[in-house]
Specification:
Strands 1, 2, 3, 8, 9, 10, 11 and 12 form an eight-stranded antiparallel beta sheet that branches. The protein has a two-stranded antiparallel sheet with strand order 4-7. A two-stranded antiparallel sheet has the order 5-6. Helices cover 35% and strands 18% of the residues. It has 357 residues and is α+β, with helices and mostly antiparallel strands. α3 crosses α6, α3 crosses α9 and α12 packs antiparallel against α13.
């Protein structure tokens, strides 16, 4: 991996599975690695600088954060900041939420399963498939608990408004996930009106999937931007989960989600999104961004990464992800495409956002 002011600490053994603990207990304790895994932990506010904002040759801003990279055998290859601390992965948890609806018995595959794990851009093909999935399961947009929204992609939002439409629940980027959750509830005879309650049977199952995938307890439960329960784990747990999904046996819920996402990445994200570019260009790669500048990726051989930009600055995502992919030896033009983050002045590029580790 590239050199850094915070030295990576190699470890030889994978981190063991932790026993689940109640949310009330986990939320009051700081997640930590076993003593045998010496990952550097820095005080809050002193996480390493992961990216710099350079304007006209002058560094005018910096983004701090934490990251972890796992080797193919699951051991920690690189750790910066505090990757053992619990945080909200936001939409990077969606593959686990999609696996939960499969475990609940919902028979999804292909584009429909990819959309269940999506933060879609709100392109016409996304919205049309959400409408079809609702109808196929005897549901309507009124069942969705997503907040009314415009398409996530700015250009799509402009076209949406120009067509005379306004904010609605289907256009919200999590509508595919919510549709799948509702369909699983209808299949099992579970209450529809309360499907986003953390105590709902589907959400209890989702918590089990998250804990099993991350190999650690959920540290806290909050409410995501879409209204669904949001489960806190560590960056280390998030990377372990993505590694598990790409290495899971064929036919398992986890592998089915990974395979659908990799086969139909445009339904996971959109036409002009880095997750789509990466999964299209690198065979076997699984990639999912999350709000507040979270990113998780696993490669086909089980190597995985996860990182969080402390201030939520999504503009730093591409440069940091590209640097990590370079360190993992991913040799494809998509890496340079992901890294591009120009800084503009007077309508032209005058600098860049660049990785700083």
């Amino acid at each position: 991996m590239p050199a850094s002011s915070s030295e990576p600490v190699p470890v030889s053994e994978p981190v063991p599975v932790s026993e689940p603990v109640p949310v009330s207990e986990a939320a009051t304790t700081s997640a930590s690695l076993p003593a045998s895994v010496p990952v550097p932990v820095l005080p809050t506010g002193t996480h390493p600088i992961l990216a710099e904002v350079v304007r006209s040759g002058f560094v005018e801003g910096r983004h701090r954060g934490s990251l972890v990279v796992l080797a193919a055998d699951g051991s920690v290859e690189l750790a910066l900041g505090d990757p053992a601390a619990p945080f909200f992965p936001r939409s990077s948890n969606k593959p686990m939420q999609a696996a939960a609806v499969l475990r609940a018995g919902l028979d999804l595959a292909g584009e429909r399963l990819a959309l269940a794990a999506a933060s879609h851009s709100g392109e016409p093909f996304h919205i049309e498939l959400v409408r079809r999935m609702l109808a196929e399961n005897g549901l309507t947009a009124d069942h969705l608990r997503t907040p009314p929204a415009l398409p996530l992609d700015p250009a799509e939002a402009e076209r949406y408004l120009a067509s005379g439409r306004g904010r609605d629940r289907i256009a919200m980027n999590c509508s595919g996930k919510h549709t799948a959750m509702l369909a699983a509830c209808r299949l099992n005879g579970w209450e529809l009106d309360t499907y986003v309650d953390p105590s709902h049977p589907l959400q209890l199952l989702t918590r089990t999937v998250v804990e099993e995938s991350a190999a650690e307890p959920v540290a806290a439960i909050g409410t995501d931007g879409c209204g669904a329960p949001l489960m806190a784990i560590s960056l280390l747990g998030l990377a372990r989960a993505y590694r598990l999904f790409v290495l899971a046996p064929e036919g398992s819920a986890e592998r089915r989600v990974a395979d659908a996402m990799r086969a139909h990445p445009e339904y996971v994200a959109g036409t002009n999104r880095p997750d789509t570019w990466l999964m299209r260009a690198v065979p076997g790669a699984l990639s999912k961004v999350g709000a507040e500048a979270v990113q998780a990726v696993a490669l086909a051989d089980g190597r995985a990464l996860a990182f969080k930009i402390d201030d939520g600055g999504t503009r730093a995502l591409g440069p940091v992800l590209a640097r990590l992919l370079e360190g993992l030896g991913v040799d494809d033009p998509v890496v340079a495409r992901i890294a591009e983050a120009p800084v503009h002045g007077g309508g032209r590029p005058v600098g860049e956002i660049r990785a700083a580790f």
